[in-house]
Design a protein that fits this description.
With 133 residues, the chain is mostly helical. The chain is 41% helix and 3% strand. It has two domains: 1-75, no CATH class; 105-133. The chain is built from four helices and two strands; from the N terminus they run H-E-E-H-H-H. Strand 1 (20-21) and strand 2 form a beta hairpin. This is Myb-like DNA-binding domain-containing protein.
Length: 133
């Protein structure tokens, strides 16, 4: 991109004023009038022009003529997206910190349950006597 002369800059700014309505600039019309390749290139030229003169789009230097962001895309320049905090895991009820452990079967408990089932099975199959295996 060749450096622009002050005359080209003035023509560009006049085109921005001419093609603005209700604080919004029609960047495609500005690009067509000034020979800029795309509407995004025209918007970027405007933003860089403001920065070069110490004016922040939408800041104290004025509204920038396009809703306050210099890019013309409808999003405010001065309200960045808030970073979401990573959710923290709650500590266990007994005060232990860290990731919760997976529940595992206790071998001793399984054997005891199996023995109880065997005893009940034998009682049901037997002739009414309390027989244990």
């Amino acid at each position: 991109m060749a450096p622009t002369t002050s005359d080209e800059t003035v023509k560009f700014l006049v085109a921005c004023i001419r093609h603005s309505a209700s604080g919004r600039i029609d960047w495609q019309a500005v690009a067509d009038e000034c020979g800029v390749p795309t509407k995004n290139a025209a918007s970027m030229r405007y933003t860089r022009l403001l920065k070069a003169h110490g004016v922040t789009p939408g800041g104290a230097g004025g509204s920038g003529g396009n809703g306050g962001n210099g890019a013309g895309n409808g999003t405010p320049a001065n309200s960045p997206a808030k970073a979401r905090a990573t959710p923290k895991k709650k500590a266990a009820a007994d005060g232990e910190a860290g990731s919760p452990a997976k529940k595992r079967k206790v071998k001793g408990k399984d054997k005891a349950e199996d023995e109880m089932e065997d005893i009940e099975t034998v009682k049901n199959e037997g002739d009414g006597e309390d027989a244990q295996v």
